UniProtKB/TrEMBL annotation:
InterPro entries: Bact_response_regulator, CheY-like_superfamily, Sig_transdc_resp-reg_receiver. PANTHER family: RESPONSE REGULATORY DOMAIN-CONTAINING PROTEIN (PTHR44591:SF3), STRESS RESPONSE REGULATOR PROTEIN 1 (PTHR44591). Residues 3-119 form the Response regulatory domain. Keywords: Phosphoprotein. The modification 4-aspartylphosphate is found at D52. One of its GO terms (biological process) is phosphorelay signal transduction system. This is Response regulator. It holds the Pfam family Response_reg. The keyword Phosphoprotein applies. SMART domains: REC.
Amino acid sequence: MALILIVEDETTQRFAAKFSLEKAGHKVIEAVDGIEGLAQARARLPDVIACDVVMPRMDGYEFLAALRGDAQLAGIPVLLLTSLAERADVRKGMRSGADDYLTKPFKFAELVEAVQGLVGKRVQRESQAARSALTDLEAAMQSQKNELSLRYEVQLLNELNARWTNKDQANVQLQFADAVLVLVGVFAGPLPASPGFSEADEMRAAYQFARDQLTLFGAQHVLPCGNDILAVFPADVAFQEPGEAVAHAWRATESLVRAVPVQALARGPVSLVQVADPMLGGASTQLVGGSAYLEAQVLRDIARSRGWAVVAAEVLRADLESANALAPGEEGSDAQEPFFRVR
């Protein structure tokens, strides 16, 4: 049984949500807006919060920002309940720190399922500190299989990666003059075996987990590169704020760092090419080039040799400080080295 806080100004919706969750075995407390919700959260420390977006006095985004700014409450999983189905509003909620969302109208069975997924996620987070990195990866993958649904695939993944899955295109090439790269060493060592799963199943699940997390936090392209996974966050997009690509890349890195201990961040030009081979029945190969990718590979090797979880190119230091990835002057390496360790 978990303690669930429902923050919803509409009486009928709040009553029905409470009834459904209590029927599923949870204990439920209520609040009619964000201000009352914060007071309830501080007094009761719920396991999960289900919060409406459009409310008087303090809306769901403001409530979420206040929650994440409170050290005592920042780790509580939040499920956003919204009638704003546009992709931009969904992304806004996820960038603000939400763990999941449901679009109204929804079935209350879906609410129960989503809440139970977040309860499991919180239990998993609390146990991760006592586990090894490989055990963390297995637990995270199993949790994400249930928690991340086709909603993310349809709304966030298909549109972004359509040009990579179009079988009618023999060759696709993309060039970014300025992009932030996250190189994730998912397959740096042997994956833990699970009953009923082959090594190929484990590799596929590891890639799926990392791809979902990276795409969720704004990566426009995620692709396997040998034993690594590469995520591309374009920085030369006109509508982005300065440093937004770095902030998104860091949020993705944070979401993976406990489960995947070796990650490298670099910035610069990168080229992506998909080449189809008619001699192999149209099977395609994805090629990556550019100075940023070469630098990311070097940084990955440095991280492994020094036992660091994350290493970044020196050019990213100021933006990572702005994104609260590290305090000014904290961590780092010799001043002569063009890279530094990220705490």
